[in-house]
Specification:
3 strands; 3-stranded antiparallel β-sheet; alpha+beta; 103 residues
């Protein structure tokens, strides 16, 4: 019986070694934000805001995500200015005012 277990164990070990290894990432590494400009009509209102992205940290997907989220509040996305990590929050916070992480 031991003679059968050793080859089986070696095959199982070899199979495990071929699996990809995914190292855990910190939450901070996954944080992604976008700053944007938006408007409302009648009367015209404009705002600059910051939103934390849930999807990919890329400008294209951010446009759709931000548009949907601010649209629920009656705002229309004018443009995504940039997509950035947590290191960019401090310098932008003052400009976003009440629209800092609001949506």
């Amino acid at each position: 019986m031991k003679q059968i277990l050793i080859p089986v164990a070696l095959v199982a070990l070899a199979a495990l070694m071929t699996l990809p290894v995914t190292l855990p990432t910190s939450a901070a590494a996954a944080e992604c934000y976008a700053d944007y400009k938006a408007k409302k009509d009648n009367p015209l209102k404009l705002h600059y805001g910051i939103v934390q992205l849930q999807g990919p940290c890329e400008r294209g997907p951010a446009k759709a995500e931000v548009s949907a989220r601010i649209g629920a509040g009656g705002w229309k996305l004018l443009n995504i200015i940039s997509v950035f990590g947590p290191e960019g929050l401090t310098q932008r916070r003052g400009n976003a005012g009440r629209f800092f992480l609001r949506f």
